[in-house]
Amino acid sequence: MNSLRAVAIALCFIVALFGVLPFPSNAQLNPSFYSKTCPNVSSIVREVIRNVSKTDTRMLASLVRLHFHDCFVQGCDASVLLNNTATIVSEQDAFPNRNSLRGLDVVNQIKTAVEKACPNTVSCADILALAAELSSTLSQGPDWKVPLGRRDGLTANQSLANQNLPAPFNSLDQLKAAFASQGLSTTDLVALSGAHTFGRAHCSLFVSRLYNFSNTGSPDPTLNATYLQQLRNICPNGGPGTPLASFDPTTPDKFDKNYYSNLQVKKGLLQSDQELFSTSGADTISIVDNFATDQKAFFESFKAAMIKMGNIGVLTGNQGEIRKQCNFVNSKSVELGLVNVASTEEGMVSSM
Ligand code: HEM
Ligand SMILES: *[C@@H]1O[C@H](CO)[C@@H](O)[C@H](O)[C@H]1NC(C)=O
Ligand SMILES: *[C@@H]1O[C@H](CO)[C@@H](O)[C@H](O)[C@H]1NC(C)=O
Ligand SMILES: *[C@@H]1O[C@H](CO)[C@@H](O)[C@H](O)[C@H]1NC(C)=O
Ligand SMILES: *[C@@H]1O[C@H](CO)[C@@H](O)[C@H](O)[C@H]1NC(C)=O
Ligand SMILES: *[C@@H]1O[C@H](CO)[C@@H](O)[C@H](O)[C@H]1NC(C)=O
Ligand SMILES: *[C@@H]1O[C@H](CO)[C@@H](O)[C@H](O)[C@H]1NC(C)=O
Protein backbone atom coordinates (compact mmCIF):
# COMPACT_ATOMS: atom_id res chain seq x y z
CA MET A 1 0.00 0.00 0.00
CA ASN A 2 2.72 2.41 1.04
CA SER A 3 4.86 1.78 -2.01
CA LEU A 4 1.80 2.22 -4.23
CA ARG A 5 1.22 5.57 -2.58
CA ALA A 6 4.83 6.54 -3.14
CA VAL A 7 4.55 5.66 -6.82
CA ALA A 8 1.33 7.65 -7.08
CA ILE A 9 2.93 10.68 -5.44
CA ALA A 10 5.99 10.41 -7.67
CA LEU A 11 3.70 10.23 -10.70
CA CYS A 12 1.85 13.37 -9.56
CA PHE A 13 5.20 15.12 -9.36
CA ILE A 14 6.22 14.09 -12.83
CA VAL A 15 2.83 15.05 -14.22
CA ALA A 16 3.06 18.42 -12.50
CA LEU A 17 6.55 18.94 -13.91
CA PHE A 18 5.90 17.92 -17.49
CA GLY A 19 2.14 18.28 -17.79
CA VAL A 20 1.91 14.80 -19.29
CA LEU A 21 2.19 11.22 -18.15
CA PRO A 22 5.76 9.99 -18.51
CA PHE A 23 4.75 6.92 -20.52
CA PRO A 24 5.56 6.76 -24.22
CA SER A 25 2.68 8.32 -26.12
CA ASN A 26 0.68 5.21 -26.91
CA ALA A 27 -1.18 7.23 -29.55
CA GLN A 28 -3.26 8.67 -26.72
CA LEU A 29 -5.21 11.78 -27.56
CA ASN A 30 -6.88 13.91 -24.92
CA PRO A 31 -9.67 16.53 -25.14
CA SER A 32 -7.79 18.82 -22.74
CA PHE A 33 -4.48 18.59 -24.62
CA TYR A 34 -4.37 22.37 -25.21
CA SER A 35 -5.94 23.43 -21.89
CA LYS A 36 -2.68 25.04 -20.80
CA THR A 37 -1.09 25.98 -24.13
CA CYS A 38 -4.12 27.18 -26.13
CA PRO A 39 -7.20 27.16 -23.90
CA ASN A 40 -9.33 29.12 -26.34
CA VAL A 41 -8.56 27.09 -29.47
CA SER A 42 -12.07 25.71 -29.83
CA SER A 43 -13.71 29.17 -29.71
CA ILE A 44 -11.23 30.52 -32.23
CA VAL A 45 -11.95 27.70 -34.68
CA ARG A 46 -15.67 28.06 -34.04
CA GLU A 47 -15.69 31.81 -34.73
CA VAL A 48 -14.00 31.47 -38.12
CA ILE A 49 -16.32 28.63 -39.16
CA ARG A 50 -19.43 30.42 -37.92
CA ASN A 51 -18.38 33.50 -39.84
CA VAL A 52 -17.74 31.62 -43.09
CA SER A 53 -20.95 29.58 -42.80
CA LYS A 54 -23.05 32.76 -42.71
CA THR A 55 -22.41 33.15 -46.44
CA ASP A 56 -21.61 29.49 -47.25
CA THR A 57 -23.72 27.05 -45.25
CA ARG A 58 -22.45 24.10 -47.27
CA MET A 59 -18.95 24.72 -45.87
CA LEU A 60 -20.02 22.94 -42.66
CA ALA A 61 -20.51 19.73 -44.64
CA SER A 62 -17.30 20.28 -46.61
CA LEU A 63 -15.27 20.53 -43.39
CA VAL A 64 -16.66 17.26 -42.01
CA ARG A 65 -15.68 15.55 -45.26
CA LEU A 66 -12.18 17.02 -45.13
CA HIS A 67 -11.47 15.32 -41.78
CA PHE A 68 -12.72 11.99 -43.21
CA HIS A 69 -10.52 12.33 -46.29
CA ASP A 70 -7.55 13.11 -44.05
CA CYS A 71 -8.02 10.18 -41.67
CA PHE A 72 -8.53 7.47 -44.32
CA VAL A 73 -5.14 8.19 -45.91
CA GLN A 74 -2.16 7.32 -43.66
CA GLY A 75 -4.14 8.42 -40.62
CA CYS A 76 -5.33 11.82 -39.32
CA ASP A 77 -2.06 13.61 -40.05
CA ALA A 78 -3.26 16.52 -42.21
CA SER A 79 -1.64 14.84 -45.24
CA VAL A 80 -4.65 15.91 -47.32
CA LEU A 81 -3.70 19.56 -46.81
CA LEU A 82 -0.22 19.26 -48.32
CA ASN A 83 0.19 20.98 -51.69
CA ASN A 84 2.28 19.77 -54.61
CA THR A 85 6.00 20.46 -54.25
CA ALA A 86 9.16 18.82 -55.55
CA THR A 87 8.75 16.09 -52.91
CA ILE A 88 4.98 16.02 -52.30
CA VAL A 89 2.46 14.51 -54.73
CA SER A 90 -0.66 16.15 -53.38
CA GLU A 91 -3.65 14.04 -52.29
CA GLN A 92 -5.79 16.95 -53.42
CA ASP A 93 -5.36 15.67 -57.00
CA ALA A 94 -6.51 12.12 -56.20
CA PHE A 95 -9.78 11.18 -57.94
CA PRO A 96 -12.03 11.41 -54.85
CA ASN A 97 -10.62 14.88 -54.06
CA ARG A 98 -10.02 16.58 -57.40
CA ASN A 99 -12.60 19.30 -58.20
CA SER A 100 -14.42 18.11 -55.13
CA LEU A 101 -12.65 18.92 -51.85
CA ARG A 102 -13.69 22.20 -50.33
CA GLY A 103 -12.56 24.16 -47.29
CA LEU A 104 -8.79 24.23 -47.77
CA ASP A 105 -8.85 28.04 -47.69
CA VAL A 106 -11.05 28.02 -44.58
CA VAL A 107 -8.56 25.75 -42.81
CA ASN A 108 -5.82 28.26 -43.64
CA GLN A 109 -7.99 31.06 -42.24
CA ILE A 110 -8.47 29.05 -39.04
CA LYS A 111 -4.77 28.27 -38.81
CA THR A 112 -3.87 31.95 -39.16
CA ALA A 113 -6.27 32.89 -36.35
CA VAL A 114 -4.98 30.07 -34.13
CA GLU A 115 -1.31 30.90 -34.80
CA LYS A 116 -1.99 34.49 -33.79
CA ALA A 117 -3.31 33.37 -30.39
CA CYS A 118 -0.96 30.41 -29.79
CA PRO A 119 2.00 30.25 -32.16
CA ASN A 120 3.58 26.86 -33.00
CA THR A 121 1.14 24.98 -30.81
CA VAL A 122 -1.94 23.57 -32.55
CA SER A 123 -1.56 21.02 -35.34
CA CYS A 124 -3.42 21.22 -38.64
CA ALA A 125 -4.64 17.65 -38.03
CA ASP A 126 -6.28 18.77 -34.75
CA ILE A 127 -7.81 21.78 -36.53
CA LEU A 128 -9.48 19.38 -38.99
CA ALA A 129 -10.86 17.27 -36.12
CA LEU A 130 -12.14 20.33 -34.25
CA ALA A 131 -13.61 21.83 -37.42
CA ALA A 132 -15.55 18.62 -38.08
CA GLU A 133 -17.09 18.59 -34.61
CA LEU A 134 -17.91 22.31 -34.63
CA SER A 135 -19.45 21.98 -38.10
CA SER A 136 -21.70 19.20 -36.83
CA THR A 137 -22.76 21.34 -33.86
CA LEU A 138 -23.36 24.43 -35.99
CA SER A 139 -25.66 22.31 -38.21
CA GLN A 140 -27.69 21.18 -35.19
CA GLY A 141 -25.92 17.84 -35.16
CA PRO A 142 -24.27 16.14 -32.18
CA ASP A 143 -21.42 17.61 -30.15
CA TRP A 144 -18.62 15.68 -28.52
CA LYS A 145 -15.34 16.26 -26.75
CA VAL A 146 -12.71 16.08 -29.49
CA PRO A 147 -9.62 14.13 -28.45
CA LEU A 148 -6.56 16.27 -29.33
CA GLY A 149 -2.80 16.06 -29.52
CA ARG A 150 -2.32 14.91 -33.12
CA ARG A 151 0.88 15.96 -34.87
CA ASP A 152 1.17 16.84 -38.56
CA GLY A 153 2.81 14.39 -40.93
CA LEU A 154 5.72 15.07 -43.23
CA THR A 155 4.39 13.14 -46.23
CA ALA A 156 1.35 12.67 -48.43
CA ASN A 157 0.34 9.70 -50.58
CA GLN A 158 -1.89 10.33 -53.58
CA SER A 159 -2.04 6.69 -54.70
CA LEU A 160 -3.09 5.68 -51.20
CA ALA A 161 -5.87 8.30 -51.36
CA ASN A 162 -7.09 6.70 -54.60
CA GLN A 163 -6.92 3.29 -52.97
CA ASN A 164 -8.43 4.00 -49.53
CA LEU A 165 -11.18 6.53 -50.14
CA PRO A 166 -14.43 4.76 -51.02
CA ALA A 167 -16.14 5.41 -54.37
CA PRO A 168 -19.86 6.13 -54.84
CA PHE A 169 -20.26 3.06 -57.07
CA ASN A 170 -18.63 0.64 -54.59
CA SER A 171 -20.67 -2.39 -53.56
CA LEU A 172 -21.71 -2.75 -49.93
CA ASP A 173 -19.04 -5.43 -49.50
CA GLN A 174 -16.40 -3.06 -50.85
CA LEU A 175 -17.57 -0.29 -48.51
CA LYS A 176 -17.45 -2.64 -45.53
CA ALA A 177 -13.95 -3.74 -46.52
CA ALA A 178 -12.73 -0.15 -46.92
CA PHE A 179 -13.99 0.71 -43.44
CA ALA A 180 -12.79 -2.55 -41.87
CA SER A 181 -9.27 -1.88 -43.12
CA GLN A 182 -9.38 1.34 -41.08
CA GLY A 183 -10.61 -0.54 -38.01
CA LEU A 184 -14.20 0.67 -38.46
CA SER A 185 -17.20 -1.63 -38.06
CA THR A 186 -20.37 -2.02 -40.12
CA THR A 187 -22.22 0.12 -37.56
CA ASP A 188 -19.50 2.77 -37.97
CA LEU A 189 -19.98 2.61 -41.75
CA VAL A 190 -23.72 3.19 -41.46
CA ALA A 191 -23.34 5.91 -38.80
CA LEU A 192 -20.59 7.80 -40.65
CA SER A 193 -22.50 7.59 -43.93
CA GLY A 194 -25.10 9.63 -42.05
CA ALA A 195 -22.83 12.63 -42.67
CA HIS A 196 -24.57 12.58 -46.06
CA THR A 197 -27.43 14.27 -44.22
CA PHE A 198 -25.97 17.55 -45.47
CA GLY A 199 -23.77 18.83 -48.27
CA ARG A 200 -23.98 18.38 -52.04
CA ALA A 201 -22.75 16.02 -54.75
CA HIS A 202 -21.96 16.61 -58.41
CA CYS A 203 -24.17 15.02 -61.10
CA SER A 204 -21.16 13.18 -62.53
CA LEU A 205 -21.08 10.96 -59.41
CA PHE A 206 -24.63 9.61 -59.66
CA VAL A 207 -25.89 10.39 -63.20
CA SER A 208 -25.39 6.81 -64.36
CA ARG A 209 -28.14 5.83 -61.90
CA LEU A 210 -30.60 8.12 -63.68
CA TYR A 211 -30.39 6.88 -67.27
CA ASN A 212 -28.18 3.87 -67.87
CA PHE A 213 -27.48 2.05 -64.63
CA SER A 214 -24.74 -0.59 -64.98
CA ASN A 215 -25.24 -0.38 -68.76
CA THR A 216 -28.79 -1.75 -68.46
CA GLY A 217 -30.23 1.15 -70.45
CA SER A 218 -32.57 1.81 -67.50
CA PRO A 219 -32.36 3.79 -64.25
CA ASP A 220 -31.29 2.22 -60.98
CA PRO A 221 -34.32 0.19 -59.83
CA THR A 222 -33.64 1.20 -56.23
CA LEU A 223 -34.40 4.88 -57.04
CA ASN A 224 -37.74 6.38 -56.00
CA ALA A 225 -39.65 7.40 -59.18
CA THR A 226 -40.47 10.89 -57.87
CA TYR A 227 -36.89 11.43 -56.76
CA LEU A 228 -35.60 10.07 -60.08
CA GLN A 229 -37.55 12.78 -61.90
CA GLN A 230 -36.24 15.49 -59.58
CA LEU A 231 -32.66 14.34 -60.11
CA ARG A 232 -33.15 14.13 -63.88
CA ASN A 233 -34.23 17.77 -63.85
CA ILE A 234 -30.96 18.70 -62.13
CA CYS A 235 -28.80 16.39 -64.27
CA PRO A 236 -30.09 16.13 -67.89
CA ASN A 237 -28.98 13.12 -69.93
CA GLY A 238 -25.68 13.93 -71.63
CA GLY A 239 -25.49 17.23 -69.74
CA PRO A 240 -22.52 18.55 -67.78
CA GLY A 241 -21.35 16.67 -64.68
CA THR A 242 -20.99 19.87 -62.68
CA PRO A 243 -24.48 20.70 -61.30
CA LEU A 244 -25.03 19.91 -57.64
CA ALA A 245 -27.78 18.01 -55.85
CA SER A 246 -28.41 18.01 -52.10
CA PHE A 247 -27.71 14.74 -50.34
CA ASP A 248 -30.83 15.27 -48.23
CA PRO A 249 -33.75 16.67 -50.26
CA THR A 250 -35.82 17.17 -47.08
CA THR A 251 -33.47 19.24 -44.88
CA PRO A 252 -30.43 19.94 -47.10
CA ASP A 253 -28.25 21.77 -44.55
CA LYS A 254 -29.43 20.33 -41.26
CA PHE A 255 -27.62 17.50 -39.51
CA ASP A 256 -30.45 15.11 -38.64
CA LYS A 257 -31.61 11.52 -39.12
CA ASN A 258 -33.45 12.20 -42.39
CA TYR A 259 -30.61 10.60 -44.38
CA TYR A 260 -31.89 7.27 -43.07
CA SER A 261 -35.62 7.92 -43.57
CA ASN A 262 -34.73 8.96 -47.13
CA LEU A 263 -33.05 5.60 -47.69
CA GLN A 264 -36.25 3.88 -46.52
CA VAL A 265 -38.21 5.56 -49.35
CA LYS A 266 -35.44 4.96 -51.92
CA LYS A 267 -34.13 8.50 -51.84
CA GLY A 268 -30.44 7.85 -51.33
CA LEU A 269 -28.40 10.06 -53.67
CA LEU A 270 -25.39 7.84 -54.31
CA GLN A 271 -25.45 4.14 -55.09
CA SER A 272 -23.25 3.70 -51.99
CA ASP A 273 -25.95 5.39 -49.88
CA GLN A 274 -28.93 3.39 -51.13
CA GLU A 275 -27.08 0.07 -50.87
CA LEU A 276 -27.08 0.35 -47.07
CA PHE A 277 -30.85 -0.18 -47.21
CA SER A 278 -31.56 -1.86 -50.54
CA THR A 279 -29.01 -4.68 -50.60
CA SER A 280 -31.20 -7.70 -49.99
CA GLY A 281 -30.53 -9.48 -46.74
CA ALA A 282 -27.86 -6.99 -45.66
CA ASP A 283 -27.08 -6.55 -41.97
CA THR A 284 -27.07 -2.78 -42.54
CA ILE A 285 -30.86 -2.59 -43.11
CA SER A 286 -31.79 -2.95 -39.44
CA ILE A 287 -29.19 -0.32 -38.51
CA VAL A 288 -30.71 2.11 -41.03
CA ASP A 289 -34.19 1.35 -39.65
CA ASN A 290 -32.99 2.02 -36.11
CA PHE A 291 -31.29 5.35 -36.97
CA ALA A 292 -34.31 6.42 -39.08
CA THR A 293 -36.59 6.22 -36.07
CA ASP A 294 -34.19 7.07 -33.25
CA GLN A 295 -32.12 10.22 -33.80
CA LYS A 296 -30.50 9.84 -30.39
CA ALA A 297 -29.21 6.40 -31.35
CA PHE A 298 -27.83 7.84 -34.61
CA PHE A 299 -26.12 10.75 -32.83
CA GLU A 300 -24.56 8.47 -30.20
CA SER A 301 -23.22 6.10 -32.87
CA PHE A 302 -22.03 9.00 -35.02
CA LYS A 303 -20.10 10.57 -32.14
CA ALA A 304 -18.46 7.27 -31.22
CA ALA A 305 -17.55 6.58 -34.85
CA MET A 306 -16.14 10.09 -35.40
CA ILE A 307 -13.92 9.70 -32.35
CA LYS A 308 -12.81 6.28 -33.61
CA MET A 309 -12.12 7.70 -37.08
CA GLY A 310 -10.25 10.62 -35.51
CA ASN A 311 -7.89 8.16 -33.84
CA ILE A 312 -6.79 6.41 -37.03
CA GLY A 313 -3.01 6.34 -37.40
CA VAL A 314 -2.41 9.51 -35.42
CA LEU A 315 1.08 10.87 -34.83
CA THR A 316 1.72 11.96 -31.23
CA GLY A 317 4.50 12.98 -28.87
CA ASN A 318 7.50 14.07 -30.91
CA GLN A 319 6.42 12.37 -34.15
CA GLY A 320 5.88 14.64 -37.14
CA GLU A 321 5.67 18.35 -36.43
CA ILE A 322 3.31 21.26 -35.79
CA ARG A 323 3.06 22.86 -39.21
CA LYS A 324 3.28 26.64 -39.44
CA GLN A 325 1.36 26.65 -42.73
CA CYS A 326 -0.97 23.74 -43.33
CA ASN A 327 -0.20 23.35 -47.05
CA PHE A 328 3.52 22.73 -46.56
CA VAL A 329 5.87 20.95 -44.20
CA ASN A 330 7.85 23.47 -42.14
CA SER A 331 11.14 23.16 -44.01
CA LYS A 332 9.28 24.00 -47.24
CA SER A 333 7.42 26.93 -45.64
CA VAL A 334 10.78 28.42 -44.64
CA GLU A 335 12.18 27.85 -48.13
CA LEU A 336 9.12 29.52 -49.70
CA GLY A 337 9.29 32.42 -47.24
CA LEU A 338 5.72 31.68 -46.10
CA VAL A 339 6.55 31.94 -42.40
CA ASN A 340 8.56 34.28 -40.26
CA VAL A 341 11.91 32.46 -40.18
CA ALA A 342 12.85 33.87 -36.76
CA SER A 343 9.80 32.19 -35.23
CA THR A 344 10.62 28.69 -36.43
CA GLU A 345 13.09 26.23 -34.99
CA GLU A 346 14.86 26.05 -38.30
CA GLY A 347 15.23 29.81 -38.16
CA MET A 348 16.63 29.69 -34.63
CA VAL A 349 19.16 27.09 -35.67
CA SER A 350 20.30 28.84 -38.85
CA SER A 351 20.54 32.24 -37.15
CA MET A 352 22.83 30.87 -34.42
C1 HEM B 1 -19.25 5.35 -47.25
C2 HEM B 1 -18.49 5.73 -48.24
C3 HEM B 1 -18.55 7.12 -48.81
C4 HEM B 1 -18.60 7.42 -50.12
C5 HEM B 1 -18.61 6.45 -51.28
C6 HEM B 1 -18.68 8.86 -50.22
C7 HEM B 1 -18.71 9.55 -51.40
C8 HEM B 1 -18.98 10.90 -51.51
C9 HEM B 1 -19.14 11.60 -52.75
C10 HEM B 1 -19.02 10.99 -54.14
C11 HEM B 1 -19.42 12.90 -52.45
C12 HEM B 1 -19.71 14.03 -53.43
C13 HEM B 1 -18.42 14.69 -53.88
C14 HEM B 1 -18.62 15.70 -54.96
O1 HEM B 1 -19.64 15.67 -55.66
O2 HEM B 1 -17.74 16.54 -55.16
C15 HEM B 1 -19.43 13.01 -51.02
C16 HEM B 1 -19.71 14.16 -50.32
C17 HEM B 1 -19.71 14.25 -48.95
N1 HEM B 1 -19.29 13.28 -48.07
FE1 HEM B 1 -19.04 11.34 -48.50
N2 HEM B 1 -18.67 9.39 -48.96
C18 HEM B 1 -18.58 8.37 -48.07
C19 HEM B 1 -18.47 8.49 -46.70
C20 HEM B 1 -18.44 9.69 -46.03
C21 HEM B 1 -18.09 9.84 -44.65
C22 HEM B 1 -17.60 8.73 -43.74
C23 HEM B 1 -18.22 11.18 -44.35
C24 HEM B 1 -17.95 11.90 -43.07
C25 HEM B 1 -18.02 11.35 -41.88
C26 HEM B 1 -18.69 11.83 -45.55
C27 HEM B 1 -19.03 13.16 -45.64
C28 HEM B 1 -19.40 13.77 -46.81
C29 HEM B 1 -19.97 15.11 -46.85
C30 HEM B 1 -20.33 15.97 -45.66
C31 HEM B 1 -20.15 15.43 -48.21
C32 HEM B 1 -20.66 16.75 -48.80
C33 HEM B 1 -19.46 17.67 -48.98
C34 HEM B 1 -19.77 19.02 -49.58
O3 HEM B 1 -20.93 19.37 -49.80
O4 HEM B 1 -18.79 19.74 -49.83
N3 HEM B 1 -18.78 10.91 -46.54
N4 HEM B 1 -19.14 11.79 -50.46
C1 LIG C 1 -11.68 33.30 -27.24
O1 LIG C 1 -11.96 33.43 -28.63
C2 LIG C 1 -13.17 34.08 -28.92
C3 LIG C 1 -13.38 34.02 -30.42
O2 LIG C 1 -12.25 34.39 -31.14
C4 LIG C 1 -13.14 35.49 -28.37
O3 LIG C 1 -14.38 36.11 -28.62
C5 LIG C 1 -12.85 35.46 -26.88
O4 LIG C 1 -12.68 36.77 -26.40
C6 LIG C 1 -11.60 34.64 -26.58
N1 LIG C 1 -11.40 34.50 -25.14
C7 LIG C 1 -10.21 34.62 -24.57
C8 LIG C 1 -10.16 34.38 -23.10
O5 LIG C 1 -9.19 34.91 -25.20
C1 LIG D 1 -15.66 37.38 -40.71
O1 LIG D 1 -15.89 37.63 -42.08
C2 LIG D 1 -15.69 38.96 -42.45
C3 LIG D 1 -16.11 39.13 -43.89
O2 LIG D 1 -15.66 38.05 -44.68
C4 LIG D 1 -14.21 39.32 -42.20
O3 LIG D 1 -13.97 40.65 -42.57
C5 LIG D 1 -13.88 39.10 -40.74
O4 LIG D 1 -12.50 39.32 -40.51
C6 LIG D 1 -14.22 37.69 -40.32
N1 LIG D 1 -14.03 37.50 -38.90
C7 LIG D 1 -13.47 36.41 -38.38
C8 LIG D 1 -13.39 36.34 -36.89
O5 LIG D 1 -13.03 35.50 -39.07
C1 LIG E 1 -2.29 25.04 -52.38
O1 LIG E 1 -2.94 24.47 -53.50
C2 LIG E 1 -4.26 24.95 -53.69
C3 LIG E 1 -4.86 24.15 -54.83
O2 LIG E 1 -4.92 22.80 -54.48
C4 LIG E 1 -4.24 26.42 -53.99
O3 LIG E 1 -5.55 26.93 -54.14
C5 LIG E 1 -3.56 27.14 -52.86
O4 LIG E 1 -3.39 28.50 -53.20
C6 LIG E 1 -2.20 26.54 -52.57
N1 LIG E 1 -1.72 27.13 -51.34
C7 LIG E 1 -0.58 27.79 -51.28
C8 LIG E 1 -0.28 28.40 -49.95
O5 LIG E 1 0.18 27.87 -52.22
C1 LIG F 1 1.88 5.12 -50.83
O1 LIG F 1 1.01 4.05 -50.60
C2 LIG F 1 1.29 2.94 -51.41
C3 LIG F 1 0.14 1.96 -51.23
O2 LIG F 1 -0.90 2.37 -52.11
C4 LIG F 1 2.62 2.35 -51.01
O3 LIG F 1 2.89 1.20 -51.78
C5 LIG F 1 3.67 3.41 -51.23
O4 LIG F 1 4.90 2.96 -50.73
C6 LIG F 1 3.31 4.72 -50.54
N1 LIG F 1 4.17 5.75 -51.02
C7 LIG F 1 4.78 6.61 -50.22
C8 LIG F 1 5.58 7.67 -50.87
O5 LIG F 1 4.68 6.55 -49.02
C1 LIG G 1 -25.80 2.20 -71.90
O1 LIG G 1 -24.39 2.16 -71.84
C2 LIG G 1 -23.80 1.16 -72.67
C3 LIG G 1 -22.31 1.16 -72.42
O2 LIG G 1 -21.81 2.46 -72.46
C4 LIG G 1 -24.16 1.42 -74.11
O3 LIG G 1 -23.63 0.40 -74.92
C5 LIG G 1 -25.68 1.44 -74.27
O4 LIG G 1 -26.01 1.81 -75.58
C6 LIG G 1 -26.30 2.45 -73.31
N1 LIG G 1 -27.74 2.36 -73.37
C7 LIG G 1 -28.51 3.42 -73.48
C8 LIG G 1 -29.98 3.17 -73.57
O5 LIG G 1 -28.07 4.56 -73.54
C1 LIG H 1 -41.28 7.54 -53.11
O1 LIG H 1 -41.35 8.75 -52.38
C2 LIG H 1 -42.67 9.09 -51.96
C3 LIG H 1 -42.58 10.42 -51.26
O2 LIG H 1 -42.09 11.38 -52.11
C4 LIG H 1 -43.22 8.02 -51.05
O3 LIG H 1 -44.55 8.33 -50.70
C5 LIG H 1 -43.18 6.68 -51.75
O4 LIG H 1 -43.55 5.67 -50.85
C6 LIG H 1 -41.76 6.40 -52.25
N1 LIG H 1 -41.73 5.17 -53.01
C7 LIG H 1 -41.04 4.11 -52.64
C8 LIG H 1 -41.07 2.95 -53.57
O5 LIG H 1 -40.39 4.08 -51.61
Automatic annotation (TrEMBL):
Binding site for heme b: 196
UniProt xrefs under InterPro entries: Haem_peroxidase, Haem_peroxidase_sf, Peroxidase_pln, Peroxidases_heam-ligand_BS, Secretory_peroxidase
Pfam family, any one: peroxidase
Keywords: Calcium, Disulfide bond, Glycoprotein, Heme, Hydrogen peroxide, Iron, Metal-binding, Oxidoreductase, Peroxidase, Secreted, Signal
Signal peptide (residue range): 1-27
Bound cofactor: record note: Binds 2 calcium ions per subunit. Binds 1 heme b (iron(II)-protoporphyrin IX) group per subunit.
Binding site for substrate: 166
Stated role: Removal of H(2)O(2), oxidation of toxic reductants, biosynthesis and degradation of lignin, suberization, auxin catabolism, response to environmental stresses such as wounding, pathogen attack and oxidative stress. These functions might be dependent on each isozyme/isoform in each plant tissue.
Family under the similarity heading: Belongs to the peroxidase family. Ascorbate peroxidase subfamily. Belongs to the peroxidase family. Classical plant (class III) peroxidase subfamily.
Protein name: Peroxidase
Species in which this protein is naturally found: Medicago truncatula
Source taxonomy: Eukaryota, Viridiplantae, Streptophyta, Embryophyta, Tracheophyta
